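Model the whole thing, not chain by chain.
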Amino acid sequence: MLRARRRTVVTVTAVVAVLLGGALAATLLTEGGGTAGGGTATSGNAVTYQAGHRPLAPEFTATSLTGTTIKLSSYRGKTVVLNFWGSWCPPCRDEAPTLGVLAQQYGSQGVAFLGDDVGDTAANALAFTRSVHVSYPSINDPGYAVVQTFSQVAPVSDTPTTVVIDKTGHVAGMVLGAVSYGEMTTLLHQAAVTS
Amino acid sequence: MTDVQTPQPQQEAVNGGAGEAAGGGAAEPPAASPGWPRWVWRQLTSMRTALILLFLLAVCSIPGSVLPQQGSDPAAVQQYFGSHPGLAPWLNHLGLFNVFAAPWFAAVYLLLFASLVGCVVPRTFRLVGSARTPPPRAPRNLDRLPHSSSYRSALPPAAAVDGAAAVLAGQRFRLRRPGQRGSDQQDRGHWVSAEKGYLREVGNLLFHLSLLGVLLSIAAGGLFGYKADKLLVEGQSFADTTSALDEFHPGRLVSGSDLAPFSMTLNKFTAGYVTSGESRGQPSDFDADVSYAASPGAAARSYHIRINDPLSVDSVKVYLIGHGYAPEFKVTGPNGSVAYQAATPFIPANTGTLLSDGVVKAPDASLGFEGVFVPTGISVDGTLQSIFPAADNPAVSLIGYSGNLGMDSGQSQSVYQLDTTAMSKVSGSPHLLLPGQTWTLPGGKGSITFVGVKQWVSLAVTYDPGQLPALVCGILALAGLLLSFFVRRRRVFVRAVPAVSGTGSLVTVGGLTRSDASGGFEEEFAELAAEIAAAEPGSGPGTPGQAGQAGQPEPGGSPPPGSRTEPGA
C-alpha cells in the first residue's frame, strides 16, 4: 500500500503542476501579454519612462527626403522629437500642424524635431511638407528600417508614433497615435529631467 | 507494484483487460477513494469524458468556420454586423466572432488537456509497473481458458515444461516459472506462464503522450507564433516590424520586439500564363525575386519565392499568396508642382483577366482618381475590358475628382477607397490613358500621367513554433495507435502433470488474449501449441508436429484434458 500511496502522491503532484500551468495559460489566453515593466507610466496614448528606466535609443544613419545625411548621435545634448509618419496616413496629416507649432516653440529651447517618413515616396512626402509648412527634416524610410530598429527597444507599433529622446540619447516617452499639444508639452517637460 | 499484482491478473484474465481503456482512476481500489474531489477527478480522467471533450472541441470549432472570424477576416465581421444588426451583438457577446480565443473554447481545451494528462500520467506508472511484472501464475485448469489443447509427453513433467518454456522463450515471450517468488511456494506443480505483446501498452502510451504533444504544440503556436500580411510593390522594401505590416495577428505572448528583424526588397515579380489552348490565361508559374537581410546590417541575400516554396528566414516563413498590378502615376497640382508620384496597387476585380480597381489620392493637389486597370485591354462597346492577365497592352481608365479628400481630418480611411462626399467630378466621362500618356485636367486643376506598370505581391509572414512538433507528434500518435491496434497482448500457460498410466506426462497448453478485437490469436495459438508439442522428442506416437490433434484423451486422467482447440468466446 505504501508504494500505491506514493504513486498517488506523484500522480496528484504531476496533475496539480499541469493544472497550474493550464491556469496560467488560460490567464494569458484571456488577458493577452505585454504588461509594462517597472519605471513606465501610461496615460491615454502616451507612455512615459522614468529617468533611470529609459531604454537607449538605437543609433541610425539615414538619408533625408531632400538627400542630406541624418545621424541620431549628432543630436546628442538635445532633446529629440522623432515623429514616424506618412503622407498617406490621415492621423499623421492631422497631427502635423501641431508638431509644426511645437517645433517653432521649442526649437529655441534645445529641442530638435525630426520626422521619419515611412511607406511613402519622397515626392508625396515633400508635397505634403510643402503644403503644411513642416520645416524640420524627415528621414526617407519607405521600407520602415528605422522603425524596425526602434521597435526593438520601444513599442513603435503603428503609424503615427512620436518618440521623445532625452539629451543623453534615451527614450523618455512616446505617443502612440496622433499627438495632442498637451501630451507633447508634458512629455517634453518630463524628458528634460534626465537624472 | 508487487502487492497489487497478485489479485489483479486473475481479475484481468477474466475481464480480458476491458477495464483498461477506462483510464487511470478505474483501477484504483474504491475503498481508498473517499470524497467528491476524487470522484470528480476520476470522472474527468475517464476515457468517456475525454471522448466527450474531444467531440465538444470539434463542435465548438464549427462556428469558427461558419461565422466570419475577427482574426482572419475582420472586414467580413463588420459586414456581418451590417447585415445582421440584431443578431450580431449577441453572437459577439458569446465570442462567436473570435471562437478560438473565447473563454469557453479555452475551457474545453484545458479540460481535455487535464483529462488526457490525468489519464496518461497514471498509465505511465502502470505501464512501467506491468513491464516489470512477470506474467501471472498459470491457472489450475488451463482447459477452461478460451484456447487450450493438450498432448501426452514421454518426458517427465519437469522436462516437458522445460521444453515448452524453451519454445516460448525462443518466440520472445516473457516467462515465469514456479519457485521464483514467495507466493509460488503454494503451487509446486510444473508450469510455465508466458506473456507477449507489451508493445501494445507502449503504443497506447505513445498515442496518448503524442496527443498531449499535439495540444502543447498548438498551444505554443498560439502563444508564441504570429501571422502577418504585406503587400509589396516591385522596387519597394519592408522591414518585419508591426507598423510596416498590413495585417498583424500576434500570438498572446508576442510583442513587437519579438518579430524576426528581417527586411526584404521585391526586385521583380514574374508571372507566367498559358498562352494557348483551353486553359489560356491560366497562371503557369509565379516567381518573386527578392533580396533579404536576416537582420539590420546583415548581408543581403537573394531568393526566389514561388508557390509552395516560401522563403525561410530566422525561423519565419514568407509565402507568396497573391499578386496584382500597380500602375505608376504622377499627379501635378494647379501650380504645376508634383503632388503625387507612386506605383499604386490596384486590386484585381477579375482574377482571370486581372482587370483591377484602384484609387489615386493626391490630397496635396486636392485631386483624386478612381481607376480601372486592364493588363491587356480592348474596348468592347465603349467599355474597357481585359482579355489576358499579362501586361501586354496595359491601359487605365480614370474618373477624376477634385475637392477635399477628407484625409486631413484625422479619420482613418482605406487606401483603396476614395471618399468623394466633398469632391466633384472633373469631367463627365472616364478618361483612357496608355503608358506615357498625360491627361491634362480641364479648368487648370492639374494633370495626371500614367508613367508605367509595376506588379505587386501579397506576402504572408508566418511564424509557428508549434508546426514541426505538432507534425512529429501527429506521426508518433498515428504510430502509437497502429501499434495498439495491431499488437495483441497474449498469455500462454503450460502445465504438466505425471501421466496416470505409465511414464511420461500430460501437458496442457492454455492461451488467452487480452484484446480479442483484432482476432487471429486462434491460429497463432494453434501454431504455438503445435510447436511446443513438436519440440518434444518423445511426444505422443503418430503425432509428429500436429499438436492440434496430438493429445490423446487420457482415460481417467485428472485434470480433464481438452483435446480440442476451443474457439474464442
